[in-house]
Amino acid sequence: MSKRIEVGIVGLGKFGYSLGEALAELGHDVVGVDRDVQRVRHAQESLTQVFQADGTDKKALEQLGFKELDYVVVSIGHSMEASILVALNLQDLGVNNIWVKAVSSEHEKVLKRLGVDFVVFPEQFVARQLAHRLAVPGLLDYLALGKGVLVREVEVDKWSGKTLRELRLPSDYRTQVVAWKHKEDRQFSFVPSPDEVLHTGDVLVVLGNAEDVIKVTG
């Protein structure tokens, strides 16, 4: 089983709630915070702990133990100022890994100057994922195999010089390489030969239960 992590989410709108729900389904602990009582009630069905509180209140975040969490995601979509204030408060509390949803390019620029660990535009991220899957025929179909199934690309590093047969992924890790491409190739090849020698920079597409895929791909 992959390492269990504790994640705090400030703002339980569509993005924040969906992220928390997905993390909880993967077996991780999620602590959610939102000022809206309806969002709090809705999230209580899925997340580990949910509190009605003002995410811009540093004392509230401190009392809820956000400093001790592995990651904190700021998902306040309505106000760039509030999002920045929450990020600053989290930094003051000594939170190690702060991820923030940006609402504009200006917002992203400010967050990066503040030294936020990761900034994401959900719409752009999803658009790039869809573009990638549309450009690689067949990969999208694997996502419909069932709840808990994960498809993940992994760049070859520690496996360089080995063959898929030597890695024994299906028998030892219950995962399967369904596609691969050499570093210099633009397109994936499907059903790779078990005797194909892997090289640094090659890309493998690994399929399996979420926990197994995360474990084997790190």
Describe the protein in words:
The structure is a single chain. The chain has 218 residues and is α/β, with parallel strands linked by helices. A 6-stranded parallel β-sheet has the order 3-2-1-4-5-6, sandwiched between helices. The chain has a 4-stranded antiparallel β-sheet with strand order 7-10-8-9. Residues 136-142 have low confidence and may be disordered. It has 2 domains: 6-125, 3-Layer(aba) Sandwich (Rossmann fold), CATH 3.40.50; 136-217, Alpha-Beta Plaits (2-Layer Sandwich). Helix 4 packs parallel to helix 5 (105-114). It is built from 9 helices and 10 strands. The chain has helices at 14-25, 37-43, 58-63, 80-93, 105-114, 122-135, 164-167, 169-173, 210-217; strands at residues 6-10, 29-34, 49-52, 71-74, 98-101, 118-120, 149-155, 175-181, 189-190, 203-209. The longest helix is centred in the middle third of the chain and has 14 residues, at 80-93.
Task: Annotate the secondary structure layout.
Elements: E1 6-10, H1 14-25, E2 29-34, H2 37-43, E3 49-52, H3 58-63, E4 71-74, H4 80-93, E5 98-101, H5 105-114, E6 118-120, H6 122-135, E7 149-155, H7 164-167, H8 169-173, E8 175-181, E9 189-190, E10 203-209, H9 210-217
Parallel strand pairs: 1-2, 1-4, 2-3, 4-5, 5-6
Antiparallel strand pairs: 7-10, 8-9, 8-10
